[in-house]
Every structure is written in structure tokens, then in C-alpha cells.
Amino acid sequence: MKRIFRKLHLWLSLPFGIIITLICFSGAMLVFEYEVTKCVKPEAFRTEQVSEPKPSEEVRKPRRKVVPRDERLPFFRTMFRLHRWLLGNRPQPGGGIHWGKMVVGVSTLLFVVVLVTGVVIWWPRTRKALVNSLKLPVRKGWRRFCYGLHVAGGMYALLLLLVMALTGLTWSFGWYREWFYEFFGVNKGWVYGVHVGSFGGTVTRVLWFLAALLGATLPLTGYYLWWKRGRRRK
Q1: Which of 36, 54, 166, 221 has the greatest count of CB atoms below 10 A from its CB?
Q2: DSSP per position, 110-163
Q3: In this predicted structure, what is the pLDDT of residue 61?
């Protein structure tokens, strides 16, 4: 069974790994867009008015801060377009299939499969092995470091990456969005707050930022390990 999961993990990662890296990296860059924009462009900064949630609504309506579209700095505008549409333009209603949006959605969906298969492949049999797999070797050579970053980084960021991916899919597929909102009984504001980690303040946003960066490294370290394995076999 592990052999099947290993092949699935590999053959989904190879063609979509770079796209996953771009999505995760651009997402990490957007986590603190509000703060950076406010520091760089305070004179033109406007905030979207978000009403204070009632105590009974706080779980369902996490607060969020949004930078108006026309006030976005060029860097963040590029990161947003990369994150949502692979640098394509905003989809227009009735404009047919938007391939950038579609590729991002499919890649995110397959990323969920890659994460799950990765856990099945690398999950140790003993508690001691699990503890060792969560350590990052820094003095055992570049290959061991990349291997440790791939395994340990994936384990540490797994749950947050799954949360980001599963909430992010609501912007890619209408059928999934309708199902997600109905199944969890939530709205777009709640999903946005969970997707970017703003529901818990600075602490959760830092965790989301670090997890997204780790997610960006996973395909890169995976490519390197695959290349080294191929050279060793030759």
C-alpha cells in the first residue's frame, strides 16, 4: 500500500510542485500586507469597516483587515495575482474558463492529496522514530538537511497547510464553495479569516506565515531528493 501512495505522491508532485511553491510563497507574502501597506503608504490608506462581532458570533465571524484593491502596493498586487490566478487578470463574469484560476484550484486540490500521501509514506512505526523524524539535521550535509526539512517541515506545517488549502479551494470552485459554506455553516468572512490566520491575531498569523513558507519549500526539497536519488541509481 505504501508503494502505491509513494508513486501517487511522486507523480502528483513532479508536475505541480512548482505551482504549489508559487501559491504557498505568494500566500505567505500576503499575510502581513495590511501592516506593510499601512507603514509604507499611510497617507492613502483606507480600511474596510468591519463591525465588532457579538460574543456569540466571534467563533463564526473572525475579524479581518482588508487592503482596498486600488491601494495595493505593486509587490502585493503581483503576489495576489500570482496566488489567485498565476499572474492572470481578474476573471470576468461570463468570460468562460479562467485557466489561471483553474490551474491554481486543481494544484491546490492535488496538494491536499500530496500532503495526505506524504503522511502515510513518512509516518514512523515507533514513537522514538517519530521524535527523530521531527528533528532537523543541520550538520550532516546538504542532502540530510533537505531530507529533514522535507519530512519535519511537512509534519510541522501539515495541519495548517491542509486548513489553508481546504479554505482556499472556496475561491476556485463554485460547487466546492457552496458545499463548504453549507456543511460548516460559515460565510466568506469566516473562511477568509481562517485562510489567512487573522482570527487569532498576530500569533496565528505568524504561524500561518511560517507554515506557508514551509509549504513553499516542500516541492523544492522534494525535487532535490528525487534528483539525488536518480543520480545515485545511475
Answers
A1: 221
A2: HHHHHHHHHHHHH--SSHHHHHHHTS--SSS-HHHHHHHHHHHHHHHHHHHHHH
A3: 66
Under 8 Å between Cβ of 118 and 154: yes
Distance CA 26, CA 18 (A): 12
CA 200 to chain centroid: 17
For 41, the grid coordinates are 503608504
Distance between CA atoms of 42 and 197, rounded to whole angstroms?
23
DSSP at 203? H
Q: Which amino acid is at 11?
A: W
Residues 103 and 92: their CA atoms lie apart, in Å, by 17
pLDDT of residue 63: 59
Flag residues of the chain having pLDDT under 70.
44-65, 68-70, 234
What are the cell numbers at 48? Answer: 474596510
Burial class (CB in 10 A: 0-12, 13-18, 19+), 8: middle
Q: What is the pLDDT of residue 127?
A: 87
- Phi and psi at 207, nearest 5°, equal -60, -45
Burial call 88-107: b when 16+ CB within 10 Å, e when fewer = beebeeeeeebebbbbbbeb
Report whether 177 contacts 170 (CB < 8 A): yes
Which 8-state DSSP code applies to residue 197? T
Burial call 147-179: b when 16+ CB within 10 Å, e when fewer: bbbbbbbbbebbebbbebbbbbbbbbbeeeeee
